[in-house]
Amino acid sequence: MSEAETVSNVETARDLTAFQQNVLIVLSEESRYGLAIKRELEDYYDEEVNHGRLYPNLDTLIERGLVEKSELDKRTNEYAITDDGIAVLLDSFEWRFRKFITNDEREEEIRALLEQ
């Protein structure tokens, strides 16, 4: 990844809302259709996530190139995180956990945990 791409990903990560980052986290496990994303987020938030919140945020993530949308069937879209989306999540995690990273070995351990 070039320095320009890294800067772009850092800026993008900082511009995302917590909800958008949580959508990326859900998609980091596997591609999902909208209602599956909604259910996963509802389990996390322990409250209903309405369509008016989910789909505009998915559209924003698609516009930023962090999520791809494809047609699963005539009525259902599937959403998948892109490589840029993963890079944004990793940058966000690294920023949050930077105080725990004390040396190269520890950084590798944290990266391995995040990749699981």
TrEMBL record:
Keyword NAD in annotation: no
Highest rank taxon of the organism: Archaea
Keywords per UniProt: DNA-binding
Gene3D superfamilies found in the cross-reference section: Winged helix-like DNA-binding domain superfamily/Winged helix DNA-binding domain
Domain Transcription regulator PadR N-terminal: residue ranges: 23-89
InterPro entries given in the database record: Tscrpt_reg_PadR_N, WH-like_DNA-bd_sf, WH_DNA-bd_sf
Residues of the signal peptide: none
GO molecular function: DNA binding
Protein name according to UniProt: DNA-binding transcriptional regulator, PadR family
